[in-house]
Amino acid sequence: MSVWTLFGILILLMVVQLVGMRLQVRAYQKTVQRLHKLGNLGIGSMRGKFGPGHLVIIVCDKEGTIVDGEIMEGMTIFSQFRKIPGIAGKTIYALKQEYQSLPKRERKQRKGHIQALEALELRLNPPAEGGKSVCE
Description:
Shape: elongated
Helix content: 40-55%
Strand order of the largest sheet: 1-2-3-4
Oligomer: single chain
């Protein structure tokens, strides 16, 4: 196999990766737009070092009751969002407490879920005047 053939295959793989990444970004944008119509969004993620990572979107109403939640997990460009079973109807506070009471290993696997719940807590309960913000 010549150097030019290898170079051509490398370029082709890069183009396929770029197209796949673009499709995944579109899927993310559509999911965020669709879920944002249901209420407040909390988004969290966990990157896997060598294993799969995940991206979590949780939606709640103004009282903190979870309306819906979706997760995208995997290592490839073929990953898609799917519903998170069993969280609708719970409050963000109860679900966060449930996740934090898990053993350390399982809690680490739910890192993206906990980040999304913390983002919702901040949205529903902003810091008081003069209090420190997370962004500071």
